[in-house]
Task: structure prediction
Amino acid sequence: MTDRPLALAVIAGTRPEACKLAPLAPWLRSDAHWIWTGQQPHWPAELPLPWLPLAPLPHPLTRRRLEALLAEQIEQRLRALAPAAVLVQGDTASAYAGALVAGRLGLPLIHLEAGLRSASLRSPFPEEGYRRRISRLTQLHLTPSVLATRALQTEGVAAHTIEQVGSTAIDGLLGRQNSNGERRPIDLLVEVHRRENAGAALVRLARALQQLEAQGWRLRIALPPNARWREHWQAAWPDFDPGHPRWLPPLPRRAWLHTVQRARLLLSDSGGAAEEAPYLGTPLLVFRRHNERPEAGASGHAVTLSTTAGAAQLRTTIIKQHQRPMATAAPGLAQRMPSTVSSARLSAGLLHDCGHFDGRGSHCTGSGGTRRCRPMAARRDRCAFGRRPSAVWLSRDRRLLAALGQQRSDCRPGQRRSRGRLAARPLG
Result:
């Protein structure tokens, strides 16, 4: 036993991870360890989080070498910090390496944005494989939508380990004023960065964009931070000049959201865009072969743009969507997409002591005589998480309040325990 409360280790290494984890910061305990893996060299300067950087990585790296180096460095840091649990987000190499190390050390693993599935291991690659492997190592799955929850249940994940909390990516948009009535000077904003869209698909898209620009369209194309993608665009666009106004450098999140709101139409292969664009009121063209976030399409706020179509067909589809009436912001998607209550606040509440982690190293669910506790890595005097959101505030969503209410009392000795998929081992 120890008198020192053990903290949560939060692992990230890319800008999207940082943006989606940052809303949790005010609701987690102040001694949480924010570990930056360096998968992308620099964390977002606009997110003032107490990052603990790992040793710089010798980029560029092959995928397998990157995974190995990340796992090695994360393990060294977690052994030194000895956290109570590990939190990873999404489907990056950093999240996957963090999940592997948590399993190796017998630490409870929490997966934020769990359950997203595209139904194809090849698209997106390797993200879809990362998601499925992380799920097998996770004790607490925090899902963003009904479909994500159902996907995990279909795969046989125990229902008591799944909590539908919505998307923390939307938390930063809830207070953002919608700009449906404002002038939108950008006809088409383009954001393409997935590896499966490099090559022939990008060449066809570039031809369509050049034809639109020749017709007088005002285009803006966002250049990803990855230097390889600048090379891809240079190969696909004959007179590529990064100094031309059509090319946008990597922007801070706030500036990027403002740019999206100034666009008449957004063409993107980003998963985050499928969440954010409906709430910003910007129609979306999803340039993907497989999509793990179909809710925006089902609501009419997004249309899939085929990556195998020719330049003429791409141009026709883009023009057709551009001529449609402007979409309105979609807070009504809360039943199918992220919740309109604060997902970050709710997620932190689910990680509270006397909640999923009861301070004695168990993951607890249920209430009364049906309560079950899952053994975790080691017995803890005090747990790692911040204060629970108030019942008054959470009463706006009765279903989620009921879910939280089932987590309140501590486990008592002698109660029934369930066997987890991952056998927990002492740290060391």
Summary: The longest strand covers residues 8-12. Residues 331-341, 353-428 have pLDDT under 50 and may be disordered.
